[in-house]
Specification:
Length: 243
């Protein structure tokens, strides 16, 4: 689909692993002016740094595919409820987004162009190719600009809502790698988990929420390490769940 707000890397397969990244792009489509300094588009408020590359590397493995958003979270955050203020944010981590001070018609247009097509496509893919495991892949900043005193020590966080089947398996596997692992850190999946709530938890599909600290995957070397690490962990978890 031309100009779709989503893309697929790799080939989805029945019983495989699907890596879903809601914030994989900092792209702002033509006709939208966010009214912010260009350098902000390279920061965490606009994109989850490193997740596109990690997802693409994981999708090179047989049985794994990646479903990724192709527009910035500042244009439309598809991991928020449809009627939540943050779905078209007017501010993020202390930065005003003046171009998002739009009227109701403009808000609905963002949803029709980006939010609804993204979720329709993800839902259709999961219906057509039921997965052994869905991995929701995000990255987080070592500290928020609005709270620089709050250092986030975790190298990776595992997030979930009520269904923690995959998380309980993944946490010790990550810890066995010598990592500082956050259980429901740097924030709780019971608070921010819209995509997985809708497409996994609501239907009993097994899923794993992964948040990698962005300095871990900011360059090619780190991305390769984490793609390898998350691939074997995802496969181990999927096998355990399927058994």
């Amino acid at each position: 689909m031309k100009d779709a707000p989503w893309r697929i890397a790799g080939t989805p397969r029945f019983g495989g692993i699907l890596v879903v990244s809601d914030h994989a792009s900092n792209h702002v489509p033509d006709g939208i002016d966010l009214g912010i300094a260009p350098n902000l588009l390279d920061q965490h408020i606009a994109v989850d740094i490193g997740v596109r590359e990690v997802g693409e590397l994981m999708a090179q493995r047989p049985g794994t595919a990646a479903f990724q958003a192709t527009v910035s979270r500042l244009v439309c955050d598809v991991n928020r409820e449809e009627h939540a203020p943050g779905v078209v944010p007017i501010a993020s981590d202390g930065h005003a987004i003046p171009g998002n001070a739009i009227d109701h018609a403009g808000h609905l247009d963002r949803l029709e162009r980006f939010f609804h097509p993204y979720h329709r496509a993800l839902g259709a893919l999961l219906d057509d190719y039921p997965q052994g495991l869905i991995m929701s892949l995000h990255s987080f900043t070592p500290h928020l600009s609005s709270h620089p005193e709050e250092v986030r020590p975790w190298q990776v966080g595992v997030l979930y809502n009520q269904d923690d089947r995959a998380s309980r398996l993944a946490i010790p596997l990550l810890e066995s790698e010598g990592l500082i692992v956050g259980d429901q850190q740097p924030y709780s999946g019971q608070l921010l988990n819209y995509t997985m709530n809708r497409h996994a938890e609501a239907d009993g599909r097994p899923y794993l929420g992964i948040e990698v600290r962005q300095d871990q995957i900011a360059d090619a070397a780190g991305q390769a390490i984490w793609a390898e690490r998350l691939s074997w962990i995802a496969n181990r978890v999927a096998i355990e769940l399927g058994g």
